[in-house]
Amino acid sequence: MRLTLKFAFLLILAQASVRSAHSQNSAKSGCALNLDISSPPYSPLIIDANTKIVMPVMEGTARVIHLTEGERVTVSCLGNGNVMKATNMQLNPTVCTSSSKLQLVNGTELPYAALACSKANREVLVEKPKSCANGLGTLISNGYQFGNEFISLYDMCHDKDFALNYYSVDTVYGRSANAADRRNQRPSFSQDIYYPGLNVSKLYTQVTQTETIANILGSKELATHYIKPKTQYFLSRGHLAPNGDFIDADSQRASFYFMNTAPQFPTFNGGNWKFLEEGIRNEAFARQLDLTVYTGTFSVMTLADINGLPKPIYLAFDKNNNVKNEDIICPDVCDQIPWVTEAILLKPFCN
Ligand SMILES: *[C@@H]1O[C@H](CO)[C@@H](O)[C@H](O)[C@H]1NC(C)=O
Ligand SMILES: *[C@@H]1O[C@H](CO)[C@@H](O)[C@H](O)[C@H]1NC(C)=O
């Protein structure tokens, strides 16, 4: 096994599809669930008849989920052992009433505040049968198990042999892009069952990465020139599918996987890259469109070594000190993105 972690990013934008308009109904009849003032401690996910998470929109300064009167939704507390406290059930079919309540099958009407789950919704990872990145990667879907169905949040293309991530695919929901939960809880990153034999969290620590880079460059002094702990100059865990693209706090938390990261300097991650991510969300909101976003890595960063020669930088090597020999050119994924040949902007890369 040869292990690499790669550095720069490439972002490919984006599919436009008009979202169903059901969340755009006026608040006059039906349900308007104000998430800011009536969320229970562990909020459920509201799943519509198309097995989609119903997302809030901004109304003034409030995040509000709209349902039409008579609309059937499943109030869901997802993940192992998670249930709605009022019923002790994970999946609760309900109907939205004229008084902004959700009616259980036995007739009881409950306000949103009474729909607490026993804990936070919890995602699962599912490996897809099809490979990605020209057969080099394994496609891992991150989402929720919903009865017998799977609600995908985003996909990750991960190379198990080389311990690197090619790209992630997520959706920016235009109508809700400005209505994300803003508590910004940042859990630690999980490697789940991936990167066997590696402790990725440890590899990323500023102490360890400084040692690794010192070995590559042949100079501790040079390494401490490039990596300055507690400043903006070290390699941080840069999200591929951005935390900020997800709307509810539980789905945001589900973005914290090492298979969804590439090493990034904070100057860039919190600078130009952040503005790019925000720009995409702003564009999706302005046009009220859903965008499918592919975010990937490109090539391997180099730093000048003790002799001034550019050396590729990796966070891990295998026990024979191997890394992948050839430069990994971003695999051509155009044939996985049917609309791409239509996209004038991207056409030059795909022909
Ligand atoms: C309906 O179900 C809820 C939750 O299980 C329960 O609290 C309530 O008493 C039930 N109502 C009726 C009328 O059976
Ligand atoms: C990985 O390393 C960290 C220290 O950076 C340590 O706290 C953690 O327990 C290690 N995890 C495993 C699974 O060994």
Question: What does this 3D model show about the protein?
Answer:
With 351 residues, the protein is α+β, with helices and mostly antiparallel strands. The chain has 8 helices and 18 strands. A 6-stranded antiparallel beta sheet has the order 1-16-13-12-11-10. It has a 5-stranded antiparallel beta sheet with strand order 3-6-7-8-9, with no helix packed on it. Strands 2-5-4 form a 3-stranded antiparallel beta sheet. Strand 4 and strand 5 (62-67) form a beta hairpin. Helix 3 (206-217) packs across helix 4. It is elongated, with a radius of gyration of 22 Å. Residues 1-27, 324-329 and 344-351 have low confidence and may be disordered. Bound molecules: 2-acetamido-2-deoxy-beta-D-glucopyranose (2 copies). The site of one 2-acetamido-2-deoxy-beta-D-glucopyranose has 6 residues, from loops.
Comma- or semicolon-separated keywords:
351 residues, alpha+beta, disordered N terminus, disordered C terminus, binds 2-acetamido-2-deoxy-beta-D-glucopyranose
What class do helices, strands and sheet pairing give? alpha+beta
Query: End-to-end distance, in Å?
Result: 33 Å
Largest sheet: 6 strands, antiparallel
Radius of gyration: 22 Å
Average pLDDT metric: 88
| Low-confidence sequence ranges | 1-27, 324-329, 344-351
Shape: elongated
Order of helices and strands: EEHEEEEEEEEEEEHHHEHEHHEEEH
Pfam families: Endonuclease_NS (PF01223)
Protein name: DNA/RNA non-specific endonuclease/pyrophosphatase/phosphodiesterase domain-containing protein
Keywords: Endonuclease, Hydrolase, Metal-binding, Nuclease, Signal
Binding site for Mg(2+): 269
